[in-house]
Amino acid sequence: MLKIDHFKKIDAHIHFNAGRKSLLTLAENYNFDLLTINTEVPNFPSIQKQRKLAQQSSSSREVQLHHAATFSTKNIFKNEWAEQTIQHIQQSIDEGACGIKFWKNIGMTIQRPDNSFLMPDDPELKPVFTYLENNQIPVLGHQGEPKNCWLPIEEMTVKSDQDYFGSHPKYHMYKNDEYPDYMEHVEARDNVLSRHPNLTFIGLHLASLEWSLDELSRRLDNHPNLAVDLAERIAHLYHHTAQDRNKVIDFFHTYQDRIIYGTDIIDDPAIPVSQVKKKLETRWNNHWSFFSTNQLLRSDQIEDTFKGLDLPTSILEKIYRTNALQWYAVK
């Protein structure tokens, strides 16, 4: 178990969809605050309900529950959509949201009448990004999927991707050429960053560049207002560490002010809370061992063993707390 006498931490990427107090109690025991990210996922509660759950459970005795808002893409091709969405965004910020989430449905599922896919750098979204940039509102961006999604199963680097795309072939882009390819998603996001250089942008899931620390470093170097979170991509860091541990350590030292910890745990009301808590505890403990010790570690996600990164406390504090506070401007 994590030592609760360590510094206060933030799991800056969860989905608090059930509103269960037991998750806040667990966070208190592990000395965590939480940041729940509202997302327009079809099987999630409505955007409005997600926001209410966050607001109604904004704090306990020892745990702060921060939240990032999102917006509806319904009617996105109508002329009034951008203006209405901007009004919704400002209301969300006024009500305490610390940023605005853009999900992968922009790029992967929303299609025009001619069947072309709406991409993040398309004209419909430009007024919204301009407003966010001008008003210094952080954007949380999840564009595309892991590159593994566009590879054959046998070439995928982590087991969770192999399992998921093996059992969900309709989401396996390697078998679906009619969808935008991997680089189209990355380039569309990069275009947004270039067009809006003062936009604060947190690339969720290692900015969908989890496969290459070199490619990720290049984006961080080119875009000083870009940070990344680790949610659901730490297994990919295990893979990199097994190959070249020093390179991973150097990456964390170089970009120590721009990396944010998160797990992407979903508190699904259809799943018993005991299962959610066990999964979250396991992640918190395994991740802490990886980042803070030099122990020889194993994971069911990769075949090789690897040593923990043994990062200094000064960097751990940034990854686990300070960076989230600064990039999301939460209090």
Topology readout:
Layout: E1 9-15, H1 21-29, E2 32-37, H2 47-56, E3 65-68, H3 81-94, E4 100-102, H4 105-108, H5 126-134, E5 139-141, H6 159-167, H7 182-195, E6 201-203, H8 204-207, H9 213-222, E7 226-229, H10 234-243, H11 245-254, E8 259-260, E9 265-266, H12 273-292, E10 296-297, E11 306-307, H13 313-328
Helix pairs in contact: 10-11
Distinctive features:
331 residues, alpha/beta, TIM Barrel, five-stranded parallel β-sheet, four-stranded parallel β-sheet, 13 helices, 11 strands, 42% helix, 11% strand, globular
Low-confidence runs of at least 5 consecutive residues: none
Largest sheet: 5 strands, parallel
* Number of spatially distinct domains: 1
Shape: globular
Distance between the termini: 27 Å
Query: How much strand content do the residues show?
Result: 5-15%
Order of neighbouring strands in the sheet with most strands: 4-5-6-7-8
Query: Helical region count?
Result: 13
Which structural class should the secondary elements be placed in? alpha/beta
Identify the CATH class. Answer: Alpha Beta
